[in-house]
Structure formats: C-alpha cells, structure tokens
Amino acid sequence: MPSQPSTTSSTSSAAAAAFEYAPAPESRAVVDIRSSYGLFVDGAFSAASDDGSFKTVNPATEEVLAEVAEATEADVDRAVRAARRAQDKVWGPMPGRERAKYLFRIARLLAERSREFAVLETLDNGKPIRESRDVDVPTAAAHFFYYAGWADKLEHAGYGADPRPHGVAAQVIPWNFPLLMLAWKIAPALATGNTVVLKPAETTPLTALLFADVLRQAELPPGVVNIVTGAGATGAALVGHPGIDKVAFTGSTAVGKRIAREIAGSRKHATLELGGKAANIVFDDAPIDQAVEGIVNGIFFNQGQVCCAGSRLLVQETIAEELVERLKSRLGTLRVGDPMDKNTDVGAINSSQQLARITELTEAGVAEGATRWSPACDLPSSGYWFAPTLFTGVSAAHRIAREEIFGPVLSVLTFRTPAEAVAKANNTPYGLSAGIWTEKGSRILWMADRLRAGVVWSNTFNRFDPTSPFGGYKESGYGREGGRHGLASYLIEGSTY
Amino acid sequence: MARTTRASTATTAGTSERLSVRKTYKLYVGGKFPRSESGRTYEVLDAKGRFLANVAQGSRKDAREAVVAARAAQAGWAAATAYNRGQVLYRVAEVLEGRRDQLVAEVGAGEGLTARQAELAVSEAIDRWVWYAGWTDKIAQVAGAANPVAGPYFNLSSPEPTGVVVVLAPQRSSLLGLVSTIAPPLVTGNTVVVVASEQRPVPAVTLSEVLATSDVPGGVVNVLTGRAAELAPPLASHRDVDAMDLAGAVGLDGATGVAGIGWGELEAAAADSVKRVLRPATDRRGNDAEPDWTEAPRPQRILAFTETKTVWHPKGI
Amino acid sequence: MSTTATGLSDRSPADVAESARSVTGSTSLDDAAWRRFLHGLPGVDRVGADGRAAMLGTRSIKTTAKAWALDTIVRMVDLTTLEGADTPGKVRSLAAKAVRPEPNDASCPSAAAVCVYNDLVPVAVEALAGTGVKVAAVATAFPSGRASRAVRLADTREAVDAGADEIDMVIDRGAFLSGRYEQVYDDIVAVRAQCRAGGRHAHLKVILETGELATYDNVRRASWLAMLAGADFIKTSTGKVSPAATLPVTVVMLEAVRDFRAQTGVQVGVKPAGGIRTSKDAIKYLVAVNEVAGPDWLDPDWFRFGASSLLNDVLMQRNKLATGAYWGPDYVTVD
C-alpha cells in the first residue's frame, strides 16, 4: 500500500476501552527443582571429583534455581570411559530395532512430561513459556521420534549396506535452545549406535538434568548417555579427550574455530553449527503482512538469541519507509516481560554476559551513526532485559550489520535490485540462513540458488522440522542436523570431515 | 617424456636423430600459462633419478593469484547447467584420450612403472574422469531430499558447491591420483587450485594443457607446481579458500605431512575460516597413507565439497 | 471524510466516488481499472496468515480481562435468526433476549442488534423500540444475491423503509470471481444509496461470503472494493455457506480496515458471522481486533459478531466467572 499509516485517528469516543490482558502465569508447581544436581555418568548422579559446583539462575529474576556440579577433567574421563564401555558392550552390538524402541520411548516420555520441561526451560533460560511449550519441547520430542525410526533402517540411508557408528560422541550444546539442541545431538547419535557424553551450557543445565530422569524412566542402559555439566573448561576437556571419536558442537563461531583447531591432525570427526548474520530480504511485491510477521519472528523469536535469526533486514528501497512504519506498529504490540506469562512474546536475555554484549553492540550502532528505535515498554527491574530494538540508517560497514548480536536487535538496510540484494546478503563470513519475501515464484528460486546459506526460508522464517537438514555454509559451520543428512556425520561411511 | 629422454641421449651420441624441442613447464592459472612470478624453477627427476624437466616453482604469490582466478571462475562454473558441466568434463576425457601416449610415457617415467602398468594407470585415470563427468546431473538426485516436514511447506534439500577448493594432489599417483582428487570437486561446480605432486608434477602440467584445449573455462582448474611445504600453508590460511583436500599430505615415503609440515598444522590453519578439510586417508592399521586409487570410487569425495542447502516455501492458495 | 460519533460514515456519494478514483488512481473505475488496483494490493500468504491467527489464538485471557471481554462480546453480538421457519413470535423472543440477555443481572449489557429477514423487520422494530438495540436486516436476495438489481434494491428499500438500522447485503460473488468488479462496486454503491434514501441513514454491512471467494487474496481485494464503494462494515459470511467466519479470514479483513483507515482516514467496521459459537473462540477474535486493527475497533460500532448460539455460551461463562461454578444450558434462556 502506497501510504504510511496516518496519524489522524478517527475513532469514536466510546471505543478504545483498553483490552488489558490480565497476568496469565503458567504454574511453576508442575516441576520440582532440586537444590543441587550432580553429574549424570554411567546411569547415576554423582558429585564432581573436587565437589565443585556452580549456580544456575533464572535470568528473568536472578533467583538462584540450583547448584550444579562442575565436571573436572577426571569426571569427563570417567564419563568418556562409561560411554566407551556402553558402546562396546551394549549399545553398539544392540540390534537397531531395539535402539529404535528406546528412542521411541524417550520421544513419548518427553511428550508426556512436556509441561514440566517447558516450565523448567523457561525458568532456566528466560524464554517465553509460549515458545518452550509450543516450539522447544514438542520439536525436541519430534526429533527423537523421527530418529527412532532410522535406527533399524540405516542400511537404506545411502551410506552403504552396513554403516558403522564412530563410537563415542562428545556433544557440546548452547543455552539458547537447551532441550531442543540436546535432542538434535542425542537423537541421531543414539540412532546410529554411538554413545554420548553431553555438556549442556553452564547457564541452562536443568532440562538436560531432567532429561536424565527421562532416561531412567526409559530404562536406557547406563553409560549410553552421560551428562557432564560445567563451563568452557569442561567442554574443552571433553573435546580434547583422546577417547572420543566425534565432536558435535553448536555455539559461537569463535569457540567452533577453537574446536576445529583443537581436533586438527586427529581422527576425530566434527560437525559445527556456529553463528549467523542472516539476511531477511523483502521485495516490494512481498505479502506484506506476513513479511512483517516473518521479520518479527525472525529477530524476536527467543529474544533474537538464535543463530539463524534474521538480524539483517534487507528491504527494497521502494517500500522501505512503509515497511519500517509497519514494523514499528507491530513491535508496539509485542508483549515484553515475565517469561512465565502465557501472553509474553519477548522474554529475558539469558545471562548478564549476553546482555552486556547486546548492550555493547547496540551502543556501537548508535556511535556509528545508525538510528535506534524501541517501542515503549516497561522492563522488569530485576533480571536481564533488553527491549526489542530496530536500527535504521544502517550501512553494511557498521558493526551491527556485520557481527552477530544474538539479541533482539534488527538492522535495516536497503537494496534496489535482486542482484544487489544477493550481493549484500552474501557479504558476510557467515552463511547459516536467509529469508526471501516476494510473491514472484521464479524470483524466489533465482534468489535461493544464489544465497550462500544452508537454510533459505521463502515467505516464512525460523521453521524447524526433524526431517529438514539444518546447518551452515562458510563460518557458520559444517555438517547438517536433521533429516537423512543428519545421520551422515554420525556414521563412518557418511563422514567427510 | 620418452622423447625428451631420447633427445638428451641423442645430443651426446651425435647421431642423426633430430634434436627435440623441449617444453617449458609452467603454471596454469586463470586459463593462462604463466611462469612463476618468482622466476624460480626446480629440477624434476624420473624414477631412476635422471633429469626430466625444470618445472616452475610456484610461490605464495602464485598461490594467491590462483585463488583469485579460481574465485573469479566459480560463480560461472557453478551456474552452468549440470548437463553442460557434464559435457565439458566429458570433453576433458576425450582430449585426455588423445594425449594418451604422452601421458603413458610421463606417468611411466615419473612413477617408475612398466609400460603396461603405466597404460593401465592412464586408462584408469581417463575412465575415472568419465565416471565423475557422469555424476554432474545425478549427484543432486542421490544426495538431495524432499523433506516431509510436519506442516504446509515445500521443503527441498540439495547439494551445492562449497566454492574454491584447494587440492594437495597425491604425491605418489601422479595422474590417477590427481584426477581422482580434482574431478570430484569440479562435478558440483567448485573451482580448484591444485598443488601437483612435488616430485612427479609432469602429468599435472600435461593435464593443464588438456584443460586449456578442452572446454573448461579458465580459472576453473588452476595448477601449481612447486614445493608443497611452501604453497600449502598460505593456501590453508587463505580466507577466500572454502575447502581443502589434504590427500597429498602424505609423503612419497609414506611420511605424514608434506616436507616436514604435518597435515594437522594445515588443518589447524584452515580452522581459522572454518574450512572444510578432507584429511589424508589411512591404511588398515590407521596410519596415514595414500590410498589405492584403482579401487572403485564412491561419491563421498564429491559430497565432501558440497553444502546442503534447504529451501522452505509455504504451500497455500 | 469524517465519521460521526456513532461511527456511521457520512461520506456523500460524491465523496465515495472521489475517494475510489483517488485510491485506485483511475477516473474510469471500469473492470480493468479495478483489476489493476485490486491485483496490485499486496498478496496474502495463506500459511503465514493462518500462522498469525493461530498465534493470536494462543493468548490466554483470564480474570479481569476475561470479564471485560465477555461483556464486550455481548455488546457486539448481532443476535441472528435467518430461518425459513422464523415467525414474529420467534423474533420477539429474540428481541427480548437481545435487550436483556440475563434477566436477573442488571449489569449484563444488551446485545448490539437483532438480525432478521426483511419481512420481519417491522416486528423487530416494534419489539426493540427505544431499547438502543439495533435492527439489522439481511437484504439483496440474501444469501445468494442471485436476483436482478432492481429486486435487490427493492428488497433493501423495503427493509430501510420498515425501519431497519442496518442492512447486511451480499455481494455478487459470481461477478467478483469472474472479474466484473465494476458491477460489484456499482451494486454496493446502489444499495448504499437505498440505505441513505428518504433521509434515512441505515448502516451498510457488505457480506463478502469469504467461503466462496476461496483465497485470502480475494478476501483482501473484496474488502477494499467494498470499502471503496462506501461500506460501513465488511462482513465475512452469510452463515449459509461453509466455511463461514474463520479467524484468519477475519485477520485479513482487520488488516484491510486498518490499512484503509491509514490511507483514507475512514474507519470501517468488521463483522465475522457464522460458526462462532463459544466464548473461547469469540475472545480469540477480540484479541485479533486488539492486536491487528487496534483498540480503536474494540467497540460495537466497529466490530460485531453475527451469531445465534454464541450469546448463551458467553452468558454461561459470565456466570462461571462471577460464581466460580460451571453453568449448564438450563440456566440461560433458550431464544
């Protein structure tokens, strides 16, 4: 539509009685949080060898949720040995159809206990309960269900007649989708006959530890999945352990590069799912209302703490002003606040460190001359919060247009032609995802061919499915998770790196 | 080579046999045959230690130029239809066939093979090229997928070229190994910078002449000769290189790495830009080893230099 | 181009035509001009629109917000009976229910209107005189609209003359789907003229019958065509075709009225009709109004529900909220 929303509201006086949504908090009572958690090794919980621990907090309130054991090198070693024994003696020799049934059990148990997981995820991570309830937990269960079915069909997956597992997989996962990333890692590893040592992120260990209880209920043999909590040092000890065969990492590009260097010259295989700086490209013939929703979902889903977030909005100049106005109106309706409220759209930032990084980069954006805008919203006084933020007047050289912010901050840039859009979209060391919005089918396919990104969402954004491969080009990493492709890197015959 | 060898004996023998015109061995970069910008050459001997040729000793700058040429050619090569790439690659096999005698002589001299063994190696190399040429319009069907997502979306995954691939060509198998490592990345639309076998580079130079006289666009394959230890590190750390095949990082004597540089160092350097690295093969005991290139190939070498792209689109009226 | 306090547009026919020419950028307003304009509107991606509606449907409206919503829904209901078996008695009963939906509870507001066929308008007018509850009449050979223009205009005129406050007309879907946009536009303009004839000022609701338009793109186009022809309200459905009102279709129409006001300054109302039977569903529509069009539309002048059974469910929910006990259908009146 050619004009911007007018400010001359012609409302009748009787109207505009505010429809204030009363608080609709999800009940916390559904989950029991223990005061302390040990390491889950060889089917049992135990303290760290040096009794070390760290606290995990609710980022929305800064309330301490639990003390969690911090695994030492010795603990990691014990976990790797347990995983090796389980792989040699139990999980490796087990027929695929039996492994499948364990995975089906896990999928069902996750679904049965979904509310518990959703609440715990939101408490530990800060994401809105609507997202953990509607996205994270059901998608995690679906992931196990999908890979369960592969366990006894691997000979038909295209990796030879008798594809073999690597052995022990070291898996290091991030804090943005704690349970979902756990599922993305563990499900294909177990389906292919590998055993696992998993390290959850230090700020979000709780759903992984609750998952250990699901494994107990599933009666998964001891040692098949081991969970070692801790920070960077624990992860480094795990990746560097000589007893592992395969590394699967999701996290920052900087750490991904360290891991790649660490395993260089070894025979450890790796998949790396790293950072991103996705372009979300909107043409002037886009389905405009859905594009606005897609942009909002692309950058404010999970507070923008998503590696594939559409953090660079590339708008065709002809509609740039109109689109920005529409976006601003839409951002005004986002509900920021208590993640446990079922009506919250934007929750808390996961940690004070992450909040500091978002703050630093947005300040750099202002300093470099971009125009910052946020809707009016009252942020809670405790916890880690950042208002949805829009930057206009952004040039490709600005830090906010180049560096991954990993927060609810959108940079708006413009283009004139499809070729310019492609050039700008690809002008980044990252290559994880991209979005295209246009009603012209042939243009979508033309663009999709040229965008250097592992996932291209056209007229949609931030869709995930267990059957659909996910992973990056360039510095966004290598290897794919999801789908038949997600089996490859857990099989000797399918692995190239 | 055989003629060259004969010629060199002829001069001393003073017979009536014609003095042959020797070839200057150059690099192949961007479809042209430059000398090394360094002006250097190095002496290449045959398997019995006799002089074969002075070959261009490429430098870091030559490597840089080769990457520039490969990058410039990549988009066009990838944009060609799979059918067209298949025809272009098949054409290379046709031209190789025409150079068969020369290649047999060169492979035989360089690798110390009997005429019969050399013929087999060259035949296998040409057939290998044909095998890969046929993959161009099939790999997406084998490696792609229509994903049945739980929602109203069309969802398709397909392999795409990684980009610019550096190949450290096998040190031992100077033609079959070379073909077996550079053809796979070409199939999907990658362009290649190849560092030829250090001590057996002559077939690589001949291959570059074949490429130049077939339909392969300039820059799609760039052939560097020289010291692997000098050329490999700057290529491994080059930010505009997307992937590396370290097949050649196993010495002729089976020693790991190239001339004192462990392949792990190259892999570590490659990590700085998250390059995809195909490590050297191992033997049955798990030691680094150059594989037996006569074994039946698998498409995994093609897939090692692809990226899976997944495209989503809603289905609605 | 201003609106009155009651929300009724007082645009003159000349204003309407001028606005249509200005917005479409065409002086001729023939089929080609309409096609250029309507097909130049941004497309609607069905999956995305469905997803947006589904997200709005997840809002959890509790306690005070729910109480406010339930009363607002009552105030927005066009209590409807459109059966061949309708009688004056049935209409009087419905009218009584509309005026005092909850006979024992003075705090319960009245419904917005009673919606009947043309021949029963006099009965409804008499029954509702002085109550503030409006009389709405379906007209223009409802529900198919398959009659000559003369018959449809006479149908309208009769209802207006009988005292109908609001006319719910149907568009000629056949003409719309075959691209005869000019005809659809002229129909609406002509019906609107009947609504304003003889010094009367009946509120015009234009029924798009979205279930027959098949695509959301068509819903958006038909919305704009109707608004440019002078509709006071755009309404989803007759209730006689399945699917009737859906949340995504209503979201698309709410986007249309929002954009129309942004462009022309004229506010148009929206009425989903048919198939909305529960408070839970109706609250989702209110959420959509609130978040898509905005709070300005949260008023019976700008949003209505065409429904019959919805009211009783809302009343039961009201009682539940007030007493904490779940209520049964025997405790609310059968209309």
Automatic annotation (TrEMBL), chain A:
Family annotation (InterPro entries): Ald_DH/histidinol_DH, Ald_DH_C, Ald_DH_CS_CYS, Ald_DH_CS_GLU, Ald_DH_N, Aldehyde_DH_dom
Active site positions, chain numbering: 273
Pfam families named in the record: Aldedh
Sequence ranges assigned to domain Aldehyde dehydrogenase in this UniProt record: 49-491
Domain of life the protein comes from: Bacteria
Keywords: Oxidoreductase
GO MF assignments: oxidoreductase activity, acting on the aldehyde or oxo group of donors, NAD or NADP as acceptor
Protein family (similarity comment): Belongs to the aldehyde dehydrogenase family.
Designated name of the protein: Aldehyde dehydrogenase family protein
Organism of this sequence: Cellulosimicrobium arenosum
Automatic annotation (TrEMBL), chain B:
Key words, A-Z: Oxidoreductase
Gene3D superfamilies attached to this UniProt entry: Aldehyde Dehydrogenase, Chain A, domain 1
Origin: domain of life: Bacteria
Location of the Aldehyde dehydrogenase domain: 37-248
GO molecular function: oxidoreductase activity
Protein name as catalogued: Aldehyde dehydrogenase family protein
Organism per entry: Cellulosimicrobium arenosum
High-level lineage: Bacteria, Bacillati, Actinomycetota, Actinomycetes, Micrococcales
UniProtKB/TrEMBL annotation, chain C:
Keyword Lyase set for record: yes
The protein, known as: Deoxyribose-phosphate aldolase
NCBIfam families, A to Z: deoC
EC number: 4.1.2.4
Region annotation Disordered: where it falls in the sequence: 1-23
SUPFAM superfamilies (UniProt xref): Aldolase
Assigned protein family: Belongs to the DeoC/FbaB aldolase family. DeoC type 2 subfamily.
Keyword terms, alphabetized: Lyase, Schiff base
GO molecular function: deoxyribose-phosphate aldolase activity
Gene: deoC
Catalysed reaction, written as an equation: 2-deoxy-D-ribose 5-phosphate = D-glyceraldehyde 3-phosphate + acetaldehyde
EC top class named in words: lyase
Entry-linked Pfam families: DeoC
Domain of life: Bacteria
Pathway: Carbohydrate degradation; 2-deoxy-D-ribose 1-phosphate degradation; D-glyceraldehyde 3-phosphate and acetaldehyde from 2-deoxy-alpha-D-ribose 1-phosphate: step 2/2
InterPro entries xrefs: Aldolase_TIM (IPR013785), DeoC (IPR011343), DeoC/FbaB/LacD_aldolase (IPR002915)
GO biological process, any: carbohydrate catabolic process
A GO-annotated cellular component: cytoplasm
Keyword Lyase: yes
